[in-house]
Amino acid sequence: GASAVRLLRDGGRLFIRDLYRPETEDEIERLVQTYAAEESQHARQLFRQSFHASLTLNEIQDIARGLGIPSDHVQMTSDRHWTIDWMK
Fold first, then answer.
1. Which residues contact 30 (CB under 8 A, 6 or more apart)?
2. Could you report the per-residue pLDDT of 19-37, keeping only the tens digit for each?
3. Of the residues 10, 20, 78, 85, which has the fewest C-beta atoms closer than 10 A?
4. For 68, left (φ over 0), alpha (ψ -120 to 50), or beta?
């Protein structure tokens, strides 16, 4: 994040999208079933672990603020993704 902001030219656009970490195990399981029910047990476990390793919206907003990116440029953009969309 910090390197991307530092290397971005004035007027440049930063666009980052990643999974977010749901608050409950039930929500994680709902997402795994919704998007990976037809996948192998191994693939579902990797997807599940990806949610556990992700940041919450508040966590990424705090990080972004520390980099000078206003919180309103970090938003939930699906039921499983947050996105930073910001012009320097």
1. none
2. 999 999 999 999 999 999 9
3. 10
4. left
- As a whole number of angstroms, the distance between CA 4 and CA 7 comes to 5
pLDDT digits (tens, 9 = 90+) for 35-65: 999 999 999 999 999 999 999 999 999 999 9
Token output for 7: 């290397």
Rg for the chain, CA atoms, rounded: 15
Residue spans of alpha helices (H) in 1-88: 2-7, 25-36, 41-53, 57-66
- Identify residue 29 by its one-letter amino acid code: E
Would you say 74 and 18 are in contact if contact means Cβ atoms under 8 Å apart?
no
Q: Is 63 helix (H, G, I), strand (E, B) or coil?
A: helix
The pTM score is: 0.88
Contact 73, 64 (CB under 8 A): yes
